[in-house]
Each structure stands twice: as structure tokens, then as C-alpha cells.
Design goal:
Length: about 260
């Protein structure tokens, strides 16, 4: 995983396994290079958290421009397991809120369309990219601890198979900067987390959700060597990332994957 910086100071993380795929653009954007004022400074990608609408619009335009995308698609995230397939009909029916098109609520997006970027917004939750370079299909998953509990990653893999004929063994996956095992404290884990997760406890009340996601993807049929994790904790690195646990009132990072036109 490496940093890439654009002319206006927009900085995004890219993944080695995805950077080798022709025609694919991607990145988990840091908090740098935007126009939002504190506590949302500065590249906040979320509309509905108290930031200036004009600032968010400019931030999203910078993200879209940096990746060279014709369309940027996102939607309200609800910590559920709804998956939206973005085909031509879904794209045309999405609400236009320039510079993005807004889908109904959901926590995973997938598409085969060229020129379309799928955006997830995070501040400690994981953004998981799935890419099938054979069928040329991509997905973007918003997975907090509730997403892990409902195994949204595996459900998205199955949806890619059912809708597009993707084979899990062909897929590449990434796990973005997010809540690390160093900071993932769950004092009420006996009520919140299934017993199958308890073995991922690294010390009393702390859990490794990066390992949980990797194992869920492997159990869904992906090869371990095709999964790349950033290994960056958003709580520990609030100089680069937004963190709800670390800051409470803060912005949201944009995680985008898309096909060039």
C-alpha cells in the first residue's frame, strides 16, 4: 500500500494488487487536500454530518477529478446487508446530487459499468474493495462491526457470483485503513459479537477485525494471497484519517473503486 498525492494536495492510498489491473482506478483518500473547516478538515466526503454542503461538493469534485471518473455513485450507509447492483437502469434512476449520484440506502455497491466509481464513506469502519479482473466486475463494501456480524463481505462475493458469474478464486480484495486490533475495544462483546468472533480477541475486550474480514473472504472462496490489507489504524493515525472513535465529531474518508471510461 502506498500514498499517491495529486496537484491540489489530495492524497489517496492505493493497493499493490489492484494497481496492476488495467483500466482500474481506486484509492482510500486521506483527510488531506480538501476545503472543509475543522472538525471536518479537510477532505470530508459526507453530506449529512454538519459540514458545509458547498465544501463537501468541492471535496467530492476533487475526488472524482483525481480518479478521472465520469460518474461517482454513493448512498446512505445503514450498517446493514443491502447490496445495490449499479447497472444502467440503477444509474439513471439514482438521485443526481452533483458531483455524485445517490442510491437508496445500502452498504455494498457493485458494477461492471465503465466510467463509474463506487464510493463508500468511512471513519473507522472498513472499506473492502472486491475486483474480478476476468469478468471486469468491482464491488465496494462498507463493513463496520455490524457488517462483520452479518458477513456482508461473503454476501457480496455471492452476489457477484450470482449476478455476473464471477468466481471467488479470480477475485482480488483489499481491506482499507480502519479500526485496528490495538483500538477495537468491545466491552460488551458477549452481547454484541457472536461466539465465533471471540477467538479473534487479541487481549481482554480487544478484537482483530482485519483478521475477521480476511477469514470471511477466504471462507467465501477467495485465495489468501489475493487479499491485501492496509494494516493502518484510523484511531492511531488521526493525522491522516478521520476516526469516529478517536474524534467523535469528524469527517468521513472516501474509498473509491471504478473502471475508466
Amino acid at each position: 500500500m502506498c500514498f499517491m498525492e495529486a496537484d491540489k494536495g489530495v492524497v489517496r492510498h492505493t493497493f499493490e494488487n489492484l494497481s496492476r489491473i488495467s483500466g482500474l482506478v481506486h484509492g482510500v483518500f486521506t483527510r488531506h487536500g480538501g476545503v472543509s473547516a475543522p472538525p471536518f478538515a479537510s477532505l470530508n466526503a459526507a453530506w449529512n454530518i454538519g459540514d458545509s454542503q458547498d465544501a463537501v461538493r468541492e471535496n467530492l469534485l476533487r475526488i472524482k477529478t483525481e480518479l478521472g471518473l465520469k460518474e461517482l455513485v454513493a448512498g446512505p450507509q445503514v450498517h446493514g446487508d443491502t447490496i445495490h447492483v449499479i447497472d444502467e437502469d440503477a444509474l439513471s434512476s439514482a438521485e443526481e446530487r452533483p458531483p455524485v449520484r445517490v442510491t437508496p440506502p445500502g452498504d455494498a455497491l457493485m458494477t461492471q459499468l465503465r466510467g463509474v466509481g463506487l464510493m463508500i464513506k468511512v471513519a473507522d469502519c472498513q472499506a473492502i474493495f472486491l475486483v474480478d479482473p476476468v469478468r471486469r466486475v468491482i464491488a465496494n463494501i462498507h463493513s463496520g462491526w455490524r457488517g462483520s456480524v452479518c458477513n456482508l463481505a461473503a454476501k457480496t462475493v455471492r452476489c457477484m457470483h450470482d449476478h455476473y458469474g464471477c468466481r471467488p478464486e479470480d477475485m482480488l480484495a483489499t481491506i482499507g485503513p480502519s479500526l485496528g486490533p490495538c483500538c477495537a475495544e468491545f466491552k460488551n462483546y458477549r452481547k454484541e459479537l457472536p461466539t465465533a468472533f471471540w477467538r479473534y480477541q487479541v487481549k481482554a475486550d480487544y478484537f482483530d477485525f482485519w483478521a475477521i474480514s480476511r477469514d470471511q473472504l477466504i471462507q467465501a472462496g477467495l485465495r489468501d494471497e489475493n487479499i491485501e490489507a492496509a494494516g493502518r489504524c484510523t484511531v492511531c493515525e488521526t493525522n491522516h484519517f478521520f476516526s469516529y472513535r478517536g474524534e467523535r465529531t469528524t469527517g468521513r474518508l472516501a474509498a473509491v473503486v471504478g473502471w475508466k471510461s
